[in-house]
Amino acid sequence: MPRPSAITIDLDALKHNAGVAGRLADSKKLMAAVKADAYGHGLIPCSKALEPLVHSLAVAVCEEAVLLREAGIQLPILVLDGPFDRVDIEVINELKLMSVVHSQQQLDLLLPITDKTAPPSVWVKVDTGMHRLGFQPKDLPDVIAQLNGVPDVVVMSHFADGEDPGSELTRRQLDRWNRLGLPIQDGTSFANSAGLINGLAPACEWVRPGIMLYGAPHQNGQGHELLRPVMSFRSAVMAVRTVETGETVGYGGRWQAPRVSRIATIPVGYGDGYPRSAKDGTPVLIGQTLCPLAGRVSMDMITVDVTDCHDCEVGTPVELWGQTLPVNRVAEQADTIGYELLTRMTSRVPRHWRP
Ligand SMILES: Cc1ncc(COP(=O)(O)O)c(C=O)c1O
């Protein structure tokens, strides 16, 4: 019998979430972020499922766009990092990709723009306060002038703190954005999932949700409760034992039994992407019961205190995160965010896509 650990990707939930994003986006066009292997959910199956529901896809780098085109996906694709070199420019031209430009060096790679070389759309990134990438607001008119000949120029920015609706940083970013004096709608894009869910999206042509499509935004807000988790990471109990009071469990003896305890061992570990930083007490769903992690996460196994779980035996189903146990609850206990857990699952775990 194979190891019972696997990931199920619920494509119906993905499509449902795209519908929720579409309703929040209202008249704005929907660009689905599918970078990083669709946040660990599978670039091609997810993009194919999203194809009829969104206006375009966003990837980080040209290599991801190549995979999409090779799979026959015809939707417009935006490369969020923009070109790194001339090879990327050739790919952008050949595959008719939309490209971000965030610096004069990138702009120089694109120039001179001719009828043959003009990308269908160039997205100019403006730094409104994230201070990671982008042109200074004062330089925008000059950048747009240099893009003369590009059929479609979009001005974009990115929220640094959209998860917090009262954020001073968000207020500053929106203030700088508004002072750009851009058209209300055409050729503009700001909001990610947090911007949409928290209702921060200024009037724009495009919205660019990612994490909400996968059902794991880490804030509450409009539409949040309607989203369905797309990835379920499941396994089954491989062993159960009793340990005496005062005995310890796992590497370093971090967890010590406060009473005679039953310990279940599950065949998933950091070699699969379960976070080693998960603390004792991190919830694990054993059968129908949430039980606390007990002891350090090993490469191939975790141990869970099932003393209070009355339906636990070898073979009992386990959910590490998914439909019942939100990935963000696990992430909190591991001092990280759901994004990281979803995107760093390793290839050892089989993935199954449910239509
Ligand atoms: C430029 C840009 N737009 C949109 C997104 C999607 O963000 P989220 O997954 O938070 O919705 C990202 C993700 O990091 C991004 O970098």
Give an overview in words.
The mean pLDDT is 96. This protein has helices at 11-25, 35-40, 43-50, 62-70, 86-94, 104-110, 140-146, 168-178, 193-197, 327-333, 338-343; strands at 6-10, 29-33, 56-59, 77-79, 98-101, 122-125, 153-156, 188-189, 206-207, 231-236, 239-243, 248-249, 255-256, 261-266, 283-286, 289-292, 302-305, 317-321, 351-354. It has an eight-stranded parallel β-sheet with strand order 8-7-6-5-4-3-2-9. It has a six-stranded mixed β-sheet with strand order 16-15-18-10-1-19. The protein has a three-stranded antiparallel β-sheet with strand order 11-14-17, with no helix packed on it. It has 355 residues and is α/β, with parallel strands linked by helices. The two termini are 25 Å apart. 45% of the residues are buried. The chain folds into two domains: 11-218, TIM Barrel; 231-354, Lyase, Ornithine Decarboxylase, Chain A, domain 1 (Beta Barrel). Pyridoxal-5'-phosphate (PLP) binds at residues 33, 80, 158, 192-194, 208-212.
Write the layout of secondary structure elements.
Elements: E1 6-10, H1 11-25, E2 29-33, H2 35-40, H3 43-50, E3 56-59, H4 62-70, E4 77-79, H5 86-94, E5 98-101, H6 104-110, E6 122-125, H7 140-146, E7 153-156, H8 168-178, E8 188-189, H9 193-197, E9 206-207, E10 231-236, E11 239-243, E12 248-249, E13 255-256, E14 261-266, E15 283-286, E16 289-292, E17 302-305, E18 317-321, H10 327-333, H11 338-343, E19 351-354
Parallel strand pairs: 1-19, 2-3, 2-9, 3-4, 4-5, 5-6, 6-7, 7-8
Antiparallel strand pairs: 1-10, 10-18, 11-14, 12-13, 14-17, 15-16, 15-18
The structure holds pyridoxal-5'-phosphate.
The site of pyridoxal-5'-phosphate has 11 residues, from helix 9.
